[in-house]
Amino acid sequence: MLAVTEPLSTPRLLLRPFRPDDADDLYEMRTCPDVLRHLYWPAASRNEVREVINARLTMNTLAAENDYLVLAVERRDTGRMIGEVDLCWTSVEHRHAEFGAILHPAGQGHGYAREASEALLGLAFDRLGLHRVTARTDARNAAAVRGLRRLGLRQEGHLRQCVRFDGKWHDELIFAILAEEWAAGRRGTVVGAFGDGPNGEPGSPKGAQEA
């Protein structure tokens, strides 16, 4: 079990549980054409965003298979929520999970997605003890593909016309990284998102609790 009850601090960001006052920032993100063009959601109404926020309020714990951890991404210098990251525990037996990240365009191009994703992967591997983490993205989303590769994930599949949305078929790309690959990529590096772990290895972002 893994619970995030306090914000996780990285050099420039806080990854924290959602709050009711995130509604305006989430509404802006959920109605932004540049965000929606690579997702399979229609633009949300304010009532729908409030429902999403209410659901997110309790999504801060991974205790059983198919549980979701969803955290708001906040800039430490401005206090503004610029996105969200999520981790779904897809298999307890096989120690698998799937992660994702969504950022408002105002937060893109500054390395925030990578910083937040590294913190989330640190939780997945270093605290939850997962063996494998996957991610999927719309095949047209070149920026997401580059970002996943920079994180050390490799492409394992190309699913042709696997999603139908808004009257069109969409391809998805599947990426993955193993625990040993994550550890090898972190070895010998100093990353501000992580505390000191055993034997000098990177530890976990501050704020996560195991039970």
State the gist of this model.
The chain is 27% helix and 34% strand.
Textual characterization of the structure:
The protein is of the alpha+beta class and 211 residues long. The chain has one domain: Gcn5-related N-acetyltransferase (GNAT) (Aminopeptidase, 3-Layer(aba) Sandwich). 27% of the residues lie in helices and 34% in strands. The protein has helices at 23-30, 33-36, 46-56, 112-127, 142-150, 179-186, and strands at 2-4, 8-9, 13-16, 61-62, 68-75, 81-91, 96-103, 132-138, 154-165, 168-178, 208-210. The chain has an eight-stranded mixed sheet, sandwiched between helices. Strands 4-1-11 form a three-stranded antiparallel sheet, with no helix packed on it. A hairpin with a 5-residue loop joins strand 5 and strand 6. Helix 1 (23-30) packs across helix 3. The radius of gyration is 17 Å and the shape is globular. The termini are close together. Mean pLDDT is 88; it is low at 188-211.
